[in-house]
Amino acid sequence: MGIPVPNHMLTLAEIIKSIPIDGILLTGGNTPEAYGGNAPERDASDKFLISYAANSGKPLLGVCRGMQSILLYFGGSLRKVEGHIALRHTIVPESGDSRFVNSYHEYAPNTLPDAFLPGAYTMDKVVEHIFHKTLPITGIMWHPEREKPFVKEDVNLVRAVFK
């Protein structure tokens, strides 16, 4: 069962203390403040939840903006990309066959933190999937929740993250 949490630090901290957490999903959303976004409260909530996941070993999946937050938390950087907003494009996973995914972002990884490996690229060499070398932390730049029906590879990825 999922529980949405607010971008309010006192409430978020109370929820984390009082409800058993099996895993964390950081959703898509606006751009991080460091790159022109206007929701510093979301940045703070994401940092808090990433820190909690990293320190507790709880699984974490970041989708689009969630992946951007993971990258920034661990010391990576973003860059503006063209042709990645409101379209479908091919990704080439490190293991597996290429496939189409949706895309709704204008910022993508520029540098990966040392603790992460790439899991998939677009044809123009943009990293679309990352995973931590030792922690159960994964990020993807596409939106599996926007696919009808859900794509088998996405369902398998989510299951693998949250076991």
What name is given to the CATH topology? Rossmann fold
**Based on the structure given, which CATH architecture is correct?**
3-Layer(aba) Sandwich
Rg, Å, rounded: 15 Å
Strand fraction band?
25-35%
CATH level 1 class label: Alpha Beta
| Alpha carbon gap, first and last residue | 14 Å
Looking across the biggest beta sheet, what order are the strands in? 1-2-9-8-7-4-5
Strand tally is 9
- CATH superfamily label: Class I glutamine amidotransferase (GATase) domain
Q: Give the rounded overall mean pLDDT.
A: 95
Instruction: Quickly count the domains.
Output: 1
User: What general form does the structure show?
Assistant: globular
Low-confidence segments: none
Task: Provide a count of the helices.
Answer: 4
Q: Helix fraction?
A: 25-40%
Give the ordered list of helices and strands.
HEHEHEEEEEEEH
Structural class call reads: alpha+beta
The largest sheet, given as strand count, sense and whether it forms a barrel, is: 7 strands, mixed
Describe this structure in words.
- The protein has 163 residues and is α+β, with helices and mostly antiparallel strands.
- It has one domain: 3-Layer(aba) Sandwich (Rossmann fold), CATH 3.40.50.
- The chain contains four helices and nine strands.
- The protein has helices at residues 9-18, 40-56, 65-73, 152-162; strands at 24-26, 60-63, 77-80, 85-93, 99-104, 107-111, 116-122, 127-132, 137-140.
- Strands 1-2-9-8-7-4-5 form a seven-stranded mixed β-sheet, with helices on both faces.
- The radius of gyration is 15 Å and the shape is globular.
- The mean pLDDT is 95.
